[in-house]
Input
Amino acid sequence: MSFTESSHLHAKNRGKTVMCFGTFDIFHPGHIHYLSEAQKYGKKLVVVIARDHRVQLIKWAHPHDDEHIRRENVKQAFSDATVILGDENDIFAPIYKYAPDVLAFGYDQFVPQDMIMEKFPDISLVRIDGFETEKWKSSFLKKDKNKSL
Output
C-alpha cells in the first residue's frame, strides 16, 4: 500500500493504533498539528521519539533538547498517547512491538517506504500535511534560539 491521505482511512481505522515518529525538538504548534491529525486515523496513538544519537546521524546536529525532555514535552501535550523513545539499534523495533495499523509521517520526513511495505504489508501509511511550515519548523526555531543566546 502506498501513502494515502483519503478520509476513508479515518472511518476504516476507528479503534486502531496509529504510530508516529519524530524528533520533536523545540516542541511547537506544527508538531501538535502533526500528532493531532495523525490521531484521527485511529483510537490509540503511539509516538516514537528519535534517540539523540540518531538525530545526530540523520540531521548532522545535536537536538536542542535531549531525548528525555522531548519525550516529556510530547507526553504533556498528548497525555493519552503512549510516548516512547526509539530503539537504540533498530528503527523498526517499535513497529514490531506495538503492531500499529497505521504509520503516520510528517510532510518533511524521509521514509523508506519500500522497505516498510515489504516488512509490514498490512500497515497503512499516511502522510500528514504541514502546518504553517514557513513559521513552525524546528530547524528555523533552533536558528532563532541560537541567535538570541
